[in-house]
Amino acid sequence: MPEPQPAVDEAIAAIVQAISDIEGPLPPKKRAIVEQAVLTFAEKGFDAASTKEIAQRAGVAEATIFRHFATKEDLLLRLVQPVVSRVVVPAATEQFERVMAAEKGRVEDVLRVVLKERLGVIRRFAPLIRILIQEIPFRPELQKVLFSQIPAGLGGALAMMQREMDSGRMRREPPTRIARWIASLFGGYFIASTIFAPGPGWDDDAEVDALVGVLAHGILKVSDGDGPQA
Question: Given 1.10.357.10, 3.60.20.10, 3.40.50.720, 3.40.50.10750, which CATH number is that of 80-226?
Fold first, then answer.
């Protein structure tokens, strides 16, 4: 069985724990299947990863996979759903409420803290996040798992944005549209900083601060005669 790197090993352990919280303690062979499925799906994509290869990497017979998981699709969903429903969304909701109280609702400060802390969670589950990035556009079953959970973590954020609009401190747009803008920018940042491996000099704190600055003030300098800033 291939030896994961320390950071990946920590991510795999966190994923296994999330699954165990729902399905109970995993027997050694089932745990090995889960670990190697995450790594194989992340490296090759779902379609290119075969259950035969996963079995070989896990040191089990291919039939053993199907004693624990009905299909390859079932294996993928049972990797993703526990982490999304039991870890990612609840942690984001709790974190947002805590930051809102600490930062007293100032949007830039809330965004800065939340994005930095969310980045830590994303990095913790990086192999699984790579699978989601690769597969969500093409798999309705994954979209259903993910998007059914998102509203639970958005209520406080949408309410905060609505209050800022009502006070005149934020441009008036549908809060869900602004949430999509933020998610798109942050998702792009994650891809650039993780998948494209920018190098050892990369500074997450400085980059997130700059990203929040763009969200708060835009990137265009508008003269007095050019109309209002967006």
Answer: 1.10.357.10
